[in-house]
Amino acid sequence: MPFVYLLFVLALTLVVFPVRRADIKNIHSTIVTSEERSLIGRMPTNSDQVAIWIDIKEFPDPLPRLIIEAEDRNFYYHIGFDPLAVYSSLVSHLFSDGRRGGASTITMQLSRILHPEWKKYPVLIRKGLEISNAIQIEFWLNKEEILESYINLVPIHSNAKGFPLASLRYFKKNIRFLSMEESVAFIILMRNPNPSYETFSKRYIKLYESFTKQTFYDHSLLREIYDAIFKAKGENIYALSEEEGHYLQWIKHQYPNQTETFESSLSKEMQSHLLSILNSELQTLKRWNVSNASLIVLSLSPEEKNIVQLKAMIGSKNFWDENEGMVNGSLSYRDAGSTIKPLLYASAIERNLVQIHTIVPDEKMTFSLGGGASYVPRNSDLKYWGELSLAESLSNSRNIPAVSVVNQYGMENFLNTLREFGFTHLRQSPDFYGPGIALGTGGASLFQLTRAYASFPMRGVLPKVFLGKADGQPIYFGETKRMFGEDTAEEIESVLSNAKLRTRAFGRRSYLDFPFPVALKTGTSKDYRNSWTIAWNESFVVGVWVGNFSGDKTMQVSGSFGAGRIVQNVFRYLVQIKPSQNIPSKFTDLINFCKESGALASEDCPKMSLLYSKRKKKPDICKLHRKENFKITHMNFIYPQDGQTFLYHPNDAMMTQMIPVKIRNWSKIPDTDVYWNEKVVKQIPSSGEFRIPIERGDHQLSIRTGEKILDRVVITVK
Ligand SMILES: [Zn+2]
């Protein structure tokens, strides 16, 4: 009577608690799709064991048959367990040394995989649970569904769960293309995940011969298969194709939450197209000792203010590469070279320390680092161009003006600005980085740089990056923050999209010239180890790095030559998706400035046309080139300029904070004096260059001959 009652309870349990294929399938990983709604891959949820789920119809022909033959010959005829096998296993458990016999059916093994928590029970109880659960599974699922779940979930080797994943990880191929020989190897590993080569080959030959009824002879193939599995570099791979491997790893790291779906913003079509551009350009760059590259594409949408979308993330040329593939180059910190300058100048303009037309010195300068050490910045061409406008020094990427601006800005202040731009890895003190921070020595990742540059097309707003929706909820990277004004953004953008302005450094025709509007900045780090180009228009921001993961030098590959050629191709592809248009300026007007004095151009001045803020006061008209002055030698201040602001930093060494002064034609007119706040400055060298110590307040510098004032500037030290 109790037995009948027990059966009744069992039958009731079976019916009340269904086992669904969808549940088995989904609890194990998050489905990640692309913008086009195609499957990119799966991410693990609760454990590091990852499943990629492949439909049984897609398994290669002999695989299911081989598994049944090796694991459970009666699979199609039992109801979840094999009474005879269980009986004999019970006997051997009770009367021998307790070693487990081959009593587990595929269904019972599946039950064990689905319930890892049962491991803690004594073996007899566990077996009982497995058997009843196996019966339940058989009641709700058909044999095909059971087999499909099993093949997708069975642990094979070192965190690789399921045949589809193991196939991707060890043989770099979709399960559909798994060979008979490779399938046999996995079947061995299901029982013994870490066999020696000897054990492996013995069992292999035995299984192979029993499956095929043929003699196995290809021992070199066997060795190859063994090595492919046991020499594989660790880590989880769960992307369906190589383009998205790095992306999935990163997303998993960013969002470890368990969700069923992650609809990413990534475009699969764009990813695969860009990867092929990258690889074909790398073929050419090989000759210059360049071995790898990374790429980021962010897209702007007119509807969503303050947000950009991550459209492409390519970490390296080949995700499966044995040595370097796993490194996501778009997230590595590298010497950022000149890519930092636009961020520096935009922030300095925003603080009124300089203006886009300000004349800055590009001359030999020494900056004291304290303790007797000093820093002498150099330009990449090892030349000094003399005085030039901020606009030209930005577009021609002069180093010394950048160092002198960061000096005005203050190291501590600029480090904080960079941290606000998202360079959160800059945790050291200003002394650690030194003034070289203006030249990228603090390092940056391609992803950070590309996002920071998005502040230009976003008109001063550092955007948060939309990555996708997890179970319908939007997921962002970072926070939105206004970094500088709309007018400043337009000023910098117009300089960096002006091919004419950069001719002096980059030549007339280069990879940086486009037949449509694109603004860009290149960067090259010391010894040509890193070549960068970040470019944007109103719809996309593209960042490209090329170099070597090993840190080896390239053969003089600059940012414009290496990364520039890839950006050129990438943008030509992107404008096919969204044409690039000239955006009319809203916050600035086109103004003619004098190239030499930085003042408003007169008719006789060498001119440069720059966008200049509507809200700022225009400078006076150029005195240097006015006709009446032509006959006499003109003497005036090249720098500082009238109205310029300097910041005083109590923590920095006094020496680094002297204000550089340069006078045009000094010593050409006799009996002239320079006054610093009504006090004569003594011993001015014949070059007309000197420095004055910094003091807070408004100061006046003037050049006088007798009672006549030849030039006068007022500067402010804050
Ligand atoms: Zn002029």
Automatic annotation (TrEMBL):
EC number(s) from the headed UniProt entry: 2.4.99.28
Any GO BP: peptidoglycan biosynthetic process
Reaction(s) this enzyme catalyzes, per UniProt: [GlcNAc-(1->4)-Mur2Ac(oyl-L-Ala-gamma-D-Glu-L-Lys-D-Ala-D-Ala)](n)-di-trans,octa-cis-undecaprenyl diphosphate + beta-D-GlcNAc-(1->4)-Mur2Ac(oyl-L-Ala-gamma-D-Glu-L-Lys-D-Ala-D-Ala)-di-trans,octa-cis-undecaprenyl diphosphate = [GlcNAc-(1->4)-Mur2Ac(oyl-L-Ala-gamma-D-Glu-L-Lys-D-Ala-D-Ala)](n+1)-di-trans,octa-cis-undecaprenyl diphosphate + di-trans,octa-cis-undecaprenyl diphosphate + H(+)
Positions in coiled-coil regions: none
Alphabetic keyword roster: Carboxypeptidase, Glycosyltransferase, Hydrolase, Multifunctional enzyme, Protease, Transferase
Gene3D superfamilies: Biosynthetic peptidoglycan transglycosylase-like, DD-peptidase/beta-lactamase superfamily
GO CC, any one term: outer membrane-bounded periplasmic space
Name of the molecule in the record: peptidoglycan glycosyltransferase
Lineage of origin: Bacteria, Pseudomonadati, Spirochaetota, Spirochaetia, Leptospirales
